[in-house]
Specification:
With about 120 residues, the protein is of the alpha/beta class. It has a single domain (about 1-115), classed as Rossmann fold, CATH 3.40.50. The protein contains three helices and six strands; from the N terminus they run βαββαβαββ. The chain has a six-stranded mixed beta sheet with strand order 3-2-1-4-5-6. The protein is globular, with a radius of gyration of 13 Å.
């Protein structure tokens, strides 16, 4: 399964993403990053896609969808929205569902990686 995660300006939440990257085996890891966020250096091979989160919601969704469409290979993706804001999350979820690809929300907890849906 592929992991898709959003990296927002809230750097303090990036630890959740790092744990998901490091503690599971993913077919592919795609990180959507607000272009105004600080740089992120992953410990594993990840595709990082910069987007302009200052755009209106529908434009942001279309930008994400255009950049994700050819990168996703499966019918379902694990999704982390631990970082970012509501507008970024709505744009990402809408883009994934419009591609269309199913989403399984994923989180790292004390028990390890858990799917929450």
């Amino acid at each position: 399964m592929e992991l898709v995660a959003f990296l927002g300006a809230d750097k303090e939440n990036w630890g959740q993403i790092v744990a998901l990257i490091n503690r599971a085996e993913w077919d592919k890891i795609i990180l959507i990053k607000n272009k105004n966020s600080e740089s992120f250096t992953p410990s594993k091979n990840c595709e990082i896609i910069d987007v302009n989160s200052d755009r209106p919601l529908v434009e942001l969704k279309n930008e994400i969808m255009g950049k994700l469409k050819e990168r996703l290979g499966g019918f379902e993706a694990a999704l982390s929205i631990a970082s970012g804001n509501g507008k970024e999350h709505m744009a990402l979820i809408s883009a994934l569902l419009s591609i269309p690809v199913g989403i399984r929300l994923v989180v790292f907890t004390k028990e390890g990686i858990e799917f929450v849906n």
